[in-house]
Amino acid sequence: MDPRWPWVFLLLLHILFGSVQQCEIPRGNSQAIRSLNAELLKLTVAETSEELNPSIYLGLRLSDDHSLARESQYLQRLHAAFQSNASRPPSEVHYQEHPGTGRLALNLLALRAACQNMNTITGKQLVTQLKLHLEEEMKQIDNKSIAHPVTNYYQYSLGVLALCVHSKKINERVIDKLLHAEAQSKFRHIRGLSVDTEAMAGLAFACLKRATGYTPELAPKLDHVVNRLKKKILRAQTSEGAFGNIYSSPLAVQFLIATRSSREPKCANGVAALLRSLEQGGFKNSLIMSQLLPVLHGKSYLDLAGLQCNAGRDSLEVGTPSPKPRGPSQPISVRLIVENSTSHLYKQLLQVPLGASLLDILTAARKLGHKPLSFETEETLSGPLLTSMMGLKAQKGERKYWKILRAPNTSLREGIADYIPRNRENIIFRFIPW
Q1: What's phi and psi for 247, nearest 5 deg?
Q2: Strand 313-314 relative to strand 65-66: parallel, antiparallel, unpaired?
Q3: φ and ψ at 231, to 5 degrees?
Q4: Torsion 174-200-154-378 (CA) sign
Q5: Cβ-based neighbours of 14, under 8 Å, separated by 6 or more
Q6: 3-class DSSP state for residue 267?
Q7: What was the pLDDT predicted at 190?
Q8: Which residue ranges in the chain fall short of pLDDT 50?
C-alpha cells in the first residue's frame, strides 16, 4: 500500500465533511419554510392592506419555490408605483428626496431579482438617482455641524449593496465614508450596537470584495472590515442564539452565509433560534420575513448577482387570502401614557379587543370623544414609524424620537403595527434625544 494513502484518506474526509455547512437548515423544517413562503405570497395580492414593498419580492425570488405568475404580477405593481423621472434622459436626472435611499436601493435590487436589463433609459435613470442619493448622504456626513447621513447608515449600506450587485462603479469616497463610519463605531442605535446595520454594511463590503475596477488600496481595507464585522456580529449573539435580537438575526445570518462563515457553530445556533421563533409564530413583520426566507434556503442578497430567472421552480399554489372571521373576544385593559421631559401629555386606560396591535389601540384612542389621542406616523421600510404624539415631533435637524416602553422600563423591539400588548400592560411613549 502506498504509505501516503492514510494522509490522502484524511484529506478526503476533511474535504467531504469539513465543507458541510453547520448553518444548514435541519431536515424536517420544509413545511415551516413553505408556510413562510406562502405568507409572503399572500402579501402580494392586491386586496391586502400591506404596503407595496420590494423586499417582499426579493425574499420570494431568493426562495427555491415559486409562484411565478404571482411574483410577476407583484413586480408589475411595484413598477407602476415607482415611476420617477420617467420622461428624462439619465443625464438630466436630478436628486429627489423621495423615495429615500433605502427604498430606491430595494427597487434596484428587485430589478436584479427580475433579471431586468439595466441598460434601458429607465434602468440608467434609477442607477443615476441612487448614485445622487449616496452623494447627498455623503455631503451631509461631511457637514461638521450634522456629521450623519440624510437617512441612516443602514440605508446608506443598502444603497452601496444595490449598486454593487448590479456591478455599477461606486465613487470610492462613498465607500470610504462607510468604512470610516464602521471604524468609528457609528453603526449604533439608541439601545447600542445595531446588528442589522452591521450586517447590511457587511453585505455591501462583501459584495465590493468580489467587484473589480477599484484601486488596489481598497482590497485590504475590505478584507479587514469584513473580518472585524464578522467578529462583532458573532460576539453579539445572545444566550438564546439570536444575533442582537431575533429581528436582526436574519440579516446577520445572511452576512455569515455570504462570507462563507456558515461552519461557525454560532451560525448554527442562530439558525436554530430563527426556526424556533418561526415555529412559534414570532415573525409578523413583512420586512423581517422577507429577509428570513433567503436564509432558510441558504442564500443572501449577494446571490441576486448570479440569479438565473429561467431556473425558478413554479411549485407553489396559494389561494387568495380571505378575511379571518372575528368572533366576540374578551376585551383587555391597556393604559397609554404619553410624556415629555417635564409632564404627562396623555394618560388613559382603554378597553381593547384581545390580539389588537399597538397601532390598532392608538387608532382607537384617537377616536375617543372626551380626550382623543393625536399621533402621526410615516411609512418606513419596516412598517409605520411613530413621528408625532399630541402635536409634539422632532423638528428638522433635531435628534429626538418617541421611545416606546413596556412599563416600567422595557424597550419594545417590535414596531407599533407588530406589537400585541397583553392585558393590564402600561405602554409609555417618551419623547427623548438620541
Answers
A1: -80, -20
A2: parallel
A3: -65, -40
A4: positive
A5: none
A6: helix
A7: 65
A8: 1, 5-21, 85, 320-325
Q: Locate 247 and state its grid cell.
A: 429581528
Q: Please report which helix (H) or strand (E) contains residue 335, including its range.
A: strand 331-339
Run of H or E including 269: helix 265-279
d(CA 365, CA 350): 8
Residues in the chain: 434
CB 55 within 8 A of CB 287: yes
- The answer to whether the beta carbons of residues 377 and 371 sit under 8 Å apart is no
Q: How far apart are CA 382 and CA 285, in angstroms?
A: 7
| Cβ-contact 298, 261 below 8 angstroms | no
Which residues contact residue 412 at a Cβ distance below 8 angstroms, ignoring those fewer than 6 apart? Answer: 358, 404, 405, 406, 419
Note whether 241 and 264 are within 8 A (CB): no
Q: Each residue of 256-288: pLDDT tens digit?
A: 999 987 677 899 999 999 999 999 988 989 999
Per residue in 114-130, pLDDT tens?
999 999 988 899 999 99
CB 380 within 8 A of CB 371: no
Task: State the pLDDT at residue 206.
Answer: 98
What pTM does this model have?
Answer: 0.86
Can you read off the three cell numbers belonging to residue 137?
Answer: 448622504
The torsion of the CA quartet 234, 36, 32, 384, rounded to 10 degrees, works out to 60
- Tell me what pLDDT residue 128 has: 94
Alpha-carbon distance of 155 to 59, in angstroms, equals 18
